[in-house]
């Protein structure tokens, strides 16, 4: 059996059309959703991702601005910038691109963003609200992964979902969101002994370990839904996932490519969060 390839670009296109009409409706009420991205330093990958975010905003009619700062910026200056954006009524979403230079505390920076404007869903208040099941801005990649699985029409209820990776941005929140869909979730990570023992039991396999090509067909249960969250730049400059695509596509029922899979969904969920933040802030 050959897998159906889940093109995030296509799924994202449908959702973005819907988002564009929501933006139009908001604009008729005089609300122009606005996203501000702060990008510190010269990392080419970060610059490329941020360009993707700005393009996404343009596509759906969100006003966006990118504030570029030198890697030498102090933590205090960065916190001051965030404070001003917190107060600016035209800014509904604030995103500080990670990673930050090592002299700046990510914890301090994320914690300084007003939680209603935290469109990454990384602020402890949003993480806590999500965990409790209260309304929250959800972490974009994790949310995008669940929406992709939903699009396949595969019921998640009662299924065994295995997540590889336990990061705050992907592994932890995606595990939680899948549990909320009534999946039975197993969390694995780089120290898991006999990883294959777990992955082979997965009806839904989420691979977010950040190790190029670590998962092959031997690791996958026939018919599984496999979502590859890996973004690894290999020596040739090519972007590859954590899954050996050509092998796994022969055994999985659904499989996401890299690029063109989860990445575009991540950006789409960021756009969705920005619109939601604009609605919430306007209603206050
Ligand atoms: N505060 C913060 N929020 C983030 O959401 C965040 C971050 N920091 N730091 C870095 C990671 C990474 N990330 C990606 C988003 C989209 C693609 C994406 O769309 N990738 C395209 C290809 C892009 C390319 O070719 O370079 C794709 O997969 O098709 C990739 C990576 C968001 N991140
Ligand atoms: Mg890990």
From TrEMBL:
Domain Tetrahydrofolate dehydrogenase/cyclohydrolase catalytic: 6-120
Alphabetical GO biological process terms: L-histidine biosynthetic process; methionine biosynthetic process; purine nucleotide biosynthetic process; tetrahydrofolate interconversion
Pfam families: THF_DHG_CYH, THF_DHG_CYH_C
Gene3D superfamilies (alphabetical): Leucine Dehydrogenase, chain A, domain 1 (3.40.50.10860), NAD(P)-binding Rossmann-like Domain (3.40.50.720)
Gene Ontology CC terms: cytosol
GO molecular function, one term: methenyltetrahydrofolate cyclohydrolase activity
Presence of keyword Hydrolase: yes
Keyword entries, A-Z: Amino-acid biosynthesis, Histidine biosynthesis, Hydrolase, Methionine biosynthesis, Multifunctional enzyme, NADP, One-carbon metabolism, Oxidoreductase, Purine biosynthesis
Keyword Amino-acid biosynthesis (UniProt): yes
Pathway the protein takes part in: One-carbon metabolism; tetrahydrofolate interconversion
Tree of life domain: Bacteria
Cross-referenced InterPro entries: Aminoacid_DH-like_N_sf, NAD(P)-bd_dom_sf, THF_DH/CycHdrlase, THF_DH/CycHdrlase_cat_dom, THF_DH/CycHdrlase_CS, THF_DH/CycHdrlase_NAD-bd_dom
EC numbers, comma separated: 1.5.1.5, 3.5.4.9
Domain named Tetrahydrofolate dehydrogenase/cyclohydrolase NAD(P)-binding: residues: 139-280
Reactions performed catalytically: (6R)-5,10-methylene-5,6,7,8-tetrahydrofolate + NADP(+) = (6R)-5,10-methenyltetrahydrofolate + NADPH; (6R)-5,10-methenyltetrahydrofolate + H2O = (6R)-10-formyltetrahydrofolate + H(+)
Residues that, per the record, bind NADP(+): 165-167, 231
Oligomeric and partner information: Homodimer.
Family note: Belongs to the tetrahydrofolate dehydrogenase/cyclohydrolase family.
Role summary: Catalyzes the oxidation of 5,10-methylenetetrahydrofolate to 5,10-methenyltetrahydrofolate and then the hydrolysis of 5,10-methenyltetrahydrofolate to 10-formyltetrahydrofolate.
The protein's name: Bifunctional protein FolD
Naturally occurring in which organism (per UniProt): Brevibacillus composti
